[in-house]
Amino acid sequence: MELSGLTIMVVEDHDFQRRMTLRLLKDLGAGTLLEAANGREALSMLTDRGEPVDIILCDLDMPEMDGVEFISHLAINQLAQAVTVVSAMEVSILNTVETMARAYGLQVLGAIAKPLNLQELTNCLGRFQPRGNDHEAYVTRTEFNVEDLKRGLKEREFIAFFQPKVSFETGEVHGVEALVRWFRPGHGVISPFYFIHQMELEGLVTPLTEVLLTQTCGYLKAWARRGFLMTASVNISMHCLEDVSIADRLHDLVKESDCEPKQIILEVTETEVMIDVAKVLNVLARLRLKGFGLSIDDFGTGYSSLQQLSNVPFTELKIDQSFVKDSPTQPRHRTIIETSLDLARKLKLKTVAEGVETRAEWDLLKSLGCQQAQGYFIARPMPGHQMPEWIQMWQAPEEV
Ligand code: C2E
Ligand code: MG
Ligand code: MG
Fold first, then answer.
1. 3-class SS of residue 349
2. 56 pairs with which residues across the strands?
3. What is the reported pTM?
4. Are residues 180 and 245 in the same domain?
């Protein structure tokens, strides 16, 4: 690809690094070069220009507007044809961003770790393909088949978002829950609601769990480096637990990612499909022995199997959002919550209320002695790189 005909913009907040990059591009024979010190400045230049640039090289970690927000603006407003992410961040984070950009229909030429070198830059720019008029139109359908799911796994389209869990008592952030999102190119972002069940039926939910666990460990390390030590919860469906080798595999995976099983809580959700209870009990006990926390998710909504699991060494109980919702005005919901909290205390389980959406729900659950809160009232699920900033900004509701 001849670079002389292309317009390339460099968005980077460090003056020195920006100049270095411009210099390298010039040496490679790039045509028109534009530069901006942050996302906001770049967006206003691009909007004024009225015509998309060919390629944008952008840093992820920028003040004012971070790279991810910037990339989503680029895509939505079609301000560029392609992006290359240049960043000193963890590879797993770079991959996440890459997948997001692709889902928005932007060409992603690659993610280059800093410091930039000429060879990698050349390789990346070489992947640029000028777009004709026939570029993919957006499709809003969310139909898919098993091949799409398999390809999605292979192409790393499944991305963990994270929602904080905070203490009712102190407001402190104790952990996060990883929630999968499918960034499907040309289809936008698809909620797990639409694909988990099918993945379970097709035997794809174990590979998905492994993907999520790996991404989660990557972020736990990245957050710890910035001084935020947390636990993370990962959802695991009963199907995964029928495979007796899963305990060892998850343990090895966490260790290979330089994390410890005690940093991970596995949230077990019941399924309608029949499971082999004896096998599942065996696997859960072994996971606990290896140090994983075990949480009963959506407590109160399940079928019958969890009753048979009463001798599982669970460490946490999550009250389902359907009971939390309207609990201040629904005596029945409140009773179920009280009973669940009572049971949890007797079994010495930590308690988490999920789906806390209002101040009234927060106050009620707190007064009933629930330990941790999760829900839109605190924060919506967010990309992992936003978590440190969110924690710094977060203020627990004041007592009245
Ligand atoms: P869950 O584990 O019970 O997760 C809580 C769900 O409630 C999440 O939906 C979350 O985004 C949503 N939520 C959180 N706070 C609020 C709130 O205040 N109000 C309301 N209305 N909703 C709230 P999401 O992300 O769509 O996930 C749905 C379910 O899909 C999860 O329920 C979980 O069972 C399953 N799931 C998600 N990720 C995975 C995964 O990686 N593996 C497996 N096996 N299942 C997953
Ligand atoms: Mg969960
Ligand atoms: Mg739940």
1. coil
2. 9, 83
3. 0.73
4. yes
